[in-house]
Amino acid sequence: MDVINKAVFMVIMLDKSPENISDKGKILLHADGRTLWCDKSLNISFFPDGQCGLNVEHSMADAPAMGHVWEYAMTMEVIEKRYLDNGQVMPPPKSFKQSNFTSHRRIIWDITDALEKEINRAVLFNQKNNDDLDLEIRNHDKYGKGVIKKARVSPDAFIQIALQLAYYRHSGRFCQTYEASATRLYQSGRTETVRSCTEEAATFVRAMVSGRLPKEELLKLLRLAGNIHQKLYRDAMNGRGIDRHLFALYIVSKGLGYESPFLESIIRRPWTLSTSQQPQQQIQANIPDINLEPFRAMCSPGGGFGPVSDEGYGVSYMLPTEYNIFFHVSSKKSCPTTDSRKFSDILFKSMDDMRLLFDTPQLE
Fold first, then answer.
1. What φ, ψ does residue 82 adopt, rounded to 5°?
2. From its phi and psi, is residue 228 left (phi > 0), alpha (psi between -120 and 50) or beta?
3. Residue 136: exposed, middle, or buried by beta-carbon count in 10 A (0-12, 13-18, 19+)?
């Protein structure tokens, strides 16, 4: 246990490599219920086909911190040419000392009957929850942020409004929506919430669904909703959000033994749509004479997470290039009103419909 506790991270050598990227995502998120060491903030899993991925626990840092470390590792692997043309690893540099590393050895565990029973019960519990996770990873390659920016709409706002349109088409209603915003402008800053289901977004969605307004009026409503969303996002980044303040008040009230019906109702209200954009720098390198653009097709789709609400969706998205957007959509199979694949289909259709609002000749 001491060897494991002192380790920086865990390395998992998997014996199966699913062809479907969504299945690979599920393995990285929860594995088989017995393989990941989830008390570690970082598990690195390697598939037999050479691909790999991370399982990251959040208490040490938010997702961008680990994401940028991983992007650096992937980028430098290309820039520094770590492999020979035949695929073999290049010889280590002279500064590398084999004596710094100990060879691997199998750890033999002394497990009592009572502990074995508890472990087996934990495995069954894990596998039941793992099987309930419905994860869909998609690459939207009809267009990316390049087209959206030319239409004078923030790419993040565009996607958030598309999510509102998709959810309304899917369920016939709006829901409380969470988007994570980084507060790293401040020392020890972590995140703040952007409540992206705004009145302006709802007005646009209702107008799109009714089909009564001309394209020009719909585009005006979209841009207005986008501007409001951008303001909310900037406010959250600059410490002018509300949710972390409300949470702090809730913690203080509990510590003082004071019951606040208002704070209780705010904290317990479910985040039916929990969303997050992943910042990325995969094909950007501030190194002279280095062009990573030829490797665009090799971009990682980034990461995702499970739904916060048992009756909702977890949606993570990344805009790695000007031409595509990756989406991770998760939900619970046990919920009769959610379906990650169906929601992804509706989201892509909603994005197509919003794209038709743009005056194409002006964008070329």
1. -85, -5
2. alpha
3. buried
Rounded CA-CA distance 86/77 in Å is: 15
- Of 30, 58, 68, 245, which one is the catalytic site residue? 58
Is 340 buried (19+), middle (13-18) or exposed (0-12) by CB count in 10 A? buried
CA distance 164 to 173: 9
Distance CA 176, CA 193 (A): 11
240-273 burial, b at 16+ Cβ within 10 Å, e below that, comes to ebebbeeeebbeeeeeeeeeeeebeeeeeeebbb
pLDDT tens digit string along 181-218? 999 899 989 999 999 999 999 999 999 999 999 999 99
86's tokens: 């035949």
58 is catalytic: yes
| Positive/negative CA dihedral, 341, 342, 345, 346 | negative
- What is the pLDDT, as a whole number, of residue 180? 94
Query: In this predicted model, which residue has the larger pLDDT, 102 or 265?
Result: 265
Instruction: Pick the closest to residue 329 from 352, 356, 353, 347 (CA basis).
Output: 347
Residue 54, helix vs strand vs coil: strand
